[in-house]
Amino acid sequence: MRDLIPRTFALICATITISLVSVESGFSGLVNINSATQAELETLPGIGPVKARRIIELRRQKGRFSRVEELEEAYGIGPKTVEALRPLCCVRDAPRQTVSSATPPAPDVQGVQSVRC
Length: 117
Hints:
Layout: H1 4-25, E1 31-32, H2 38-41, H3 49-62, H4 79-85, E2 89-90
Parallel strand pairs: 1-2
């Protein structure tokens, strides 16, 4: 319980910071998990270098994400982390890769609940 307060405070601060950047620059502030770099993923609360690399590896293996909830498939990311990330992330088609061995994107899913940015 004692460590819950600092983590909650950090999440609130991160959300406020992203909101302020969004207002000032017109940027949506959402991280597109289908194209985010490791550095961009590391800006998310609870995502450090190791988890960012796991997300990128999962994306490389399975293709694009259809929902933010699919992050739970990455080792070390559970429902609570995904719940905290949901308002900060979105899924959008990543730019097409020119490498012929690239994994084809997953088919669109009807009724996707995740935010598309």
